[in-house]
Amino acid sequence: MTYRPPIDDILFLLREVIGADSILARPEFAHVDPESLEAAVRQAGRVASDIVAPMNAPADRIGATLENGVVRLPPGFVEAYEAFCDGGWPGLALPEEYGGQAMPEIAQAALSEMSNGASLAFSMLPVCGRAAVRVLLAHAEPDTQALWVPKLASGEWSGTIVMTEPHAGSDIGQARTKAVPQADGSYALTGTKIFISFGDHDATPQNAHIVLARIEGAPEGVRGLSLFLVPRVTMEADGTFGPRNAIAASRIEEKMGIHGSPTCEMRLDGATGYLLGEPERGIQNMFTMINTMRLEVALEGVGIAGAALDKAARYASERVQGGSGGAATAIVEHADIRRTLLRMKALTGGARALCYETAALLDRGRSEEAGFLLPICKAVASEIAVEVASLAIQVHGGHGYISEHGVEQLMRDARITPIYEGTNGIQAVDLLLRKIGRDDARTLSLLCERVEGDLEPAAGGEIGDAVAAGLGEWRRVSSLLLERMAADVNQGLSGATPYLRLAGTVLMGWMWLRMAVAAKDDEYGDEIRTVARFYAADIMPEVDTLARRALVPGELLYTLDSERVARV
Amino acid sequence: MTYRPPIDDILFLLREVIGADSILARPEFAHVDPESLEAAVRQAGRVASDIVAPMNAPADRIGATLENGVVRLPPGFVEAYEAFCDGGWPGLALPEEYGGQAMPEIAQAALSEMSNGASLAFSMLPVCGRAAVRVLLAHAEPDTQALWVPKLASGEWSGTIVMTEPHAGSDIGQARTKAVPQADGSYALTGTKIFISFGDHDATPQNAHIVLARIEGAPEGVRGLSLFLVPRVTMEADGTFGPRNAIAASRIEEKMGIHGSPTCEMRLDGATGYLLGEPERGIQNMFTMINTMRLEVALEGVGIAGAALDKAARYASERVQGGSGGAATAIVEHADIRRTLLRMKALTGGARALCYETAALLDRGRSEEAGFLLPICKAVASEIAVEVASLAIQVHGGHGYISEHGVEQLMRDARITPIYEGTNGIQAVDLLLRKIGRDDARTLSLLCERVEGDLEPAAGGEIGDAVAAGLGEWRRVSSLLLERMAADVNQGLSGATPYLRLAGTVLMGWMWLRMAVAAKDDEYGDEIRTVARFYAADIMPEVDTLARRALVPGELLYTLDSERVARV
User: Residue A168, SS3?
Assistant: First the structure.
């Protein structure tokens, strides 16, 4: 169950497409030179293939277990995590003052992609830690930061994000967990939370639970929520551990995949918590890490898609079966398998490039553009992950359906990514309502102009023509949906999901155009140009279908009353 | 984990769309009247919901086990199977002279769909028995038929289809299992077979293994294979059991889903077998049941899609979360959820109707048309099953990814259907190469004329217009691919997979047109017409994309050499 990290593709993107050198030239990255960035990427690849990948299949088979209120991670997990921390990887892109390496987001993107490709279940643990760090750096008091952040940056302690409740998923405003002020300035939190990744585990002795709860007497709804730091183990101000806090896993969920990542129901029974930031600003303060998490989930999609492509490509070159016309050959020679592998390459490469472009925008401080692209990256990369993993199964035939090759695990693991950290439907509404509607389409125009600017050299051949046509459709559909939204918000939003995919399809085409233009005159360059042509021929035509789907009149969706829609 | 069988939809199709009455008017169905057909459908629905559905989730969780060379089915399986047999369901469409009820294929289709919707893993056992009966009725000697078929028709004994070997999947000609003639006219078979569904199990005391093997000295390749009946337990001519035959399960596979259905590696170690039909006609004789199996797998897809729709619809009407604009409502009110449910309805209903139409063609003896539609039904319905199950997960959000609601199991179970009984890539090649190319497109023309004939009343509104446009694209792409195939078979076949889906999309549109025209002026009719409009608006546009994908020049697929295609 080996994992071969896509080092060549990542380095090509960083060097030739998204302009890593100009990012490293910024003063905040004065301590990083191109060689150390490349070395970090190569070393991250070795960590993924040598340390993370070997535990992935056993962790899936055995899963995490809950025994006497304590979650045990599957065999091999803790050892892999310790090796990961020994290499300093949890703090790769965190500030140096807290023990991090302060590398740019593009380096973290490469690490995340490869670690996710090796094992999504594993990689979710450091993600939770990084998310907690973001929240603490933005909203905690300095002494809290000094106590917690270095331990989180080293991976010695871990973090969790504790939002969802049984009746409060996408609609988090229904959360009922209560926080009662205590005499010492802390709060006593009581309630039940669900779907908490790594809510409890035995890889670290301490856990920073970042919990959304409602202070007694605060208003109902999303505006009444506040954010708290709830330690797994109570601590003195100097970090000395006291007894366990009154927060514990009461169940772990049976689920489709990511069995190595315990999904916990957490009971808080008067647990001691500390307010983070202002009261009743919980949602706004939580948004500090929403961008981080969206990019992380997008890179989970890219990582899984890349791993699925790797397995399928190897199998196709090794598996010998007859062609339609005579002598048996490796199945990579069969037209249908080639078509499938090219589609997998085109989707995976496009999603990867768009995610790294977004990471680069974050590094350049262009947060409006990055914020626009993030819901697209999250939704598109996660959908691509499921499709590419499914295609990888298909390439393997019956051998893909059995567990032996690890490819069915990839599809099961991938299937969470369109759901968590905001379902893709939520991402689509966010894009259309907030990132476009509430911005008067300024960032949209800016990005369309960037795409247009890259069309001017007319160097792209088929992919250039296809992107030009796609861009026209994107603009046309955007205008029409904005008009509809102006008349009736829900009428416009009814096209949100196909609209997001349309935007993503055009933007991935743009990235393939940029890759094709940047590709050198060598064998790798030939491959890039061919896959770009295939993207233009096989995938860009989806834009027309998506445009028509995005413009399906909202009334059609509401012609039937709910009982008929939900009838079976 | 209840299952609500879609009785209304099935009865509407049978009565109003595919013309069950005219099938029952045929002399071979003189013993069946419309009331008894309807009663059988309703009773089959109760069997699915009351007997089959309850064992599905536990069977998935526990799975089949191999102990001391004997496979044990999970708890509840054997009891459910016995109840299923007590009701006479295994023989519903088998001849009366062997104890069957000789119902038409449309009745079997309804039973299969609902049984599959309740539990795919369960339903695979009777499918294997029916497939074995088809082979035996076509190729066995009368005394063999007399001994075996009544026991298979009652379900007292079961069947298996034993084809695949580790190096011989789609390329079955590489099979190495040897058959050595014995003095008594039997053969001794030796070899290893894989992916044998219900290769061993404890639900029946006897098993008819239908085995492909090569008689010693026969030519290499697919032409040298013969078909054998290999009993699990040796028998006297009068049916008295002797010792176990030398065929046994040596392993059961860990796999993505259908855990209740043991997928066995079978070792034959000089097992006694009996030639079925002529020697070296094994493949041709096996084709006797290929049509049966394709329709069965298509109905697996329809069954799972229907079950997924059922679960999603119920969840959407019960789950209350905020809308974009204010007060919390059932999520079925949200535009994105409605869009999703309508897509699930449009795909499921279209695939169901096309499968029942195909079953009706079989009942009418129109085997050319049915043969044309079968690879389309198999591939399209199986792809739809995976998509609809995935959409059902998405409707459930995080609750869909955990096992509790049973919807993630549907997606895991569904994922086998595009693979087995000929991968969908094989179906696509079969359609284009054999059903169209080798038939000089006669059946294609016939079907296109039928579609055209249904357009003439112009009664369909949007769906009529969309089908008219789609039919034009289908004819255009067919001509172009046939031209390409005439020049270079592989050039044409490189478009086979999108071509099949294009044909299926148009044909499902045709079925929605027929349903819309047949629908009455009542609430159910309004629903049918609305979903037909949605099919026209949301799904028919895919035809254009599929046309462009089908026509991607074959050279583009072969621009890169294999090493580059398979590089990661």
Answer: strand
Chain B residue numbers with beta carbons less than 8 Å from the beta carbon of A423 are 394, 397
The answer to whether residue A1 neighbours chain B at the CB level (below 8 Å) is no
What are A287-315's pLDDT values in tens digits? 878 888 999 999 999 999 999 999 999 99
Tell me which residues of chain B, numbers 122 to 161, contact chain A at a CB-CB cutoff of 8 Å: none
Q: Where are the domains of chain A?
A: 438-568
Q: Read off the pLDDT of each residue in B447-473 and give the average, rounded to a whole number.
A: 91
CA distances from A162 to A225, A265, B283 (A): 13, 10, 59
Check the CA dihedral B427-B428-B431-B434 and report its sign: negative
For residue A227, the tally of other CB atoms under 10 A from its CB is 29
Give me the helices (H) in A488-567, please. 489-493, 496-518, 523-534, 542-550, 554-557, 562-565
Q: Is the pLDDT of residue B492 over 60?
A: yes
**Chain centroid offset of residue B289 CA:** 12
In whole angstroms, give the CA distance from residue B209 to residue B69.
17
Dist. CA B252–CA B71, nearest whole Å: 8
Are A209 and A140 in contact by the 8 Å Cβ rule? The answer is no
Q: What is the mean pLDDT of residues A131-157?
A: 96
B81, B203 contact by CB (below 8 A): yes
Identify any residues that bridge with B446 across adjacent strands, giving them in sequence order: none
- Say whether A65 sits in a helix, a strand or coil: strand
Q: Give the count of beta carbons closer than 10 Å to the beta carbon of residue B422.
A: 19
What's the half-sphere exposure (Cβ side, CA atoms, 13 Å) at B423? 21
Helices (H) and strands (E) in chain B, counts: 23, 13
User: From the list B257, B324, B345, which residue is nearest A433 (CB)?
Assistant: B324
pLDDT for the residue A459: 65
- Please report which confidence band the pLDDT of residue B460 belongs to, taking 50, 70 and 90 as the band edges: confident
Q: Answer with the residue of higher pLDDT: A291 or A119.
A: A119
* Of A412, A493, A527, Cβ closest to residue B324: A493
Instruction: State the pLDDT at residue B490.
Output: 82
A16 is catalytic: no
Which residues are paired to B187 by β-bridges? B181, B273
A/B interface, count of CB pairs below 8 Å: 290
Coil, helix or strand at residue B373: helix
Structure tokens at B326: 């204010």
Report the distance separating Cα A329 and Cα B357, nearest Å: 38
pTM value is 0.97
B221 Ramachandran zone, left/alpha/beta (phi>0; psi -120 to 50): left
The answer to whether B400 contacts A423, with C-beta atoms less than 8 Å apart, is: no
For residue range A457-497, list pLDDT tens digits in order.
666 789 999 999 999 999 999 999 999 999 998 888 999 99
The ipTM of this complex is: 0.97
User: Which of the 8 DSSP states describes residue A143?
Assistant: H
List, as ranges, residues 209-238 from B with C-beta within 8 Å of A.
none
Q: A437-461: per-residue pLDDT in tens?
A: 999 999 999 999 999 999 976 667 8
In 3D space, the residue among B68, B65, B64, B63 whose CA is nearest the CA of residue B244 turns out to be B68
Residues of B noted as catalytic: 421
Q: List CB contacts (< 8 A) between A537 and chain B.
A: 548-549, 552-553, 556
- Using CB atoms within 10 Å of the CB of residue A129, give its burial: 0 to 12 exposed, 13 to 18 middle, 19+ buried: buried
Q: How confident is the model over A71-93, as a mean pLDDT?
A: 97
Angle B120-139/B407-414 helices, nearest 10 degrees? 30
Phi-psi region of A288 (alpha: psi -120 to 50; beta: other; left: phi over 0): alpha
Residue B320 pLDDT greater than 80, yes or no:
yes
The type of residue at A81 is Y
Which whole-number Å values give the CA distances from A97 to A153, B441, B561, in the listed order?
10, 73, 50
A126-143 average pLDDT score: 96
Would you place residue A326 in the very low, low, confident or very high pLDDT band (cuts 50, 70, 90)?
low
